[in-house]
Amino acid sequence: MAKKSRKQQAGGTPATVALTAAGTAFTVHSYDHDPSSPSYGEEAAEALGVSADRVFKTLVADVDGELVVAVVPVAGSLDLKALASAVGGKRAAMADPAAAERTTGYVRGGISPLGQRKRLRTVLDASAGSHATICVSAGRRGLEVELAPADLATLTDASLAPIGRT
Q: Tell me: the pLDDT tens digits for 140-155?
């Protein structure tokens, strides 16, 4: 088992540790997660009082046998064909939840595009660029991190593409 850094032991997550190590400006927002909530992302937007087009969910898809991260607004859904096209693939499907958790090191509903156990190819919905800041999971349910979309793209080496549907 990997040894946790002091920041992780003090309540940080791999995502916040990665942001801090990179010297990136960010704000952490926490809220009381309701396990009966039908949508983690919509719950976060409502709890934080942030527009659902500024809160982005992190989804893991299987594109032609490769796991790929898609970051899209919680106000919409992922266009799997657009994601496949964005990474030069033919077919995309949502990844098996257990494989997504095992590969990223996060639990469903708390998967962050940052600080993943295995760095996966990442695509950020192009709509992110229309906001000064966006919120993404900070690595656990009830914890979001707010940062500039350009910083998220840089830290995850993400490409920007129109992969979200409203």
A: 989 999 999 999 999 9
* Helix, strand counts (H, E) of the chain: 6, 10
The DSSP 8-state label assigned to residue 55 in this structure reads: B
Collapsing DSSP states into helix, strand and coil, what is residue 156? helix
Query: For 36, phi and psi rounded to 5 degrees?
Result: -90, 0
Task: Tell me which amino acid residue 145 is.
Answer: V
Per-residue CA distances from 151 to 74, 77, 88 (Å): 19, 23, 24
Q: Alpha helices of 10-164 — where are they, by DSSP H?
A: 14-22, 40-48, 80-86, 97-104, 149-156
What's the chain's length in residues? Answer: 166
Q: Annotate 103-126 with b (16+ C-beta within 10 A) or e (fewer).
A: bbbbeebbbbbbbbeeebbbbbbe
- pLDDT, tens digit (0-9, with 9 covering 90-100), for 5-55: 333 334 589 999 999 999 999 999 999 888 888 788 888 888 899 999 999
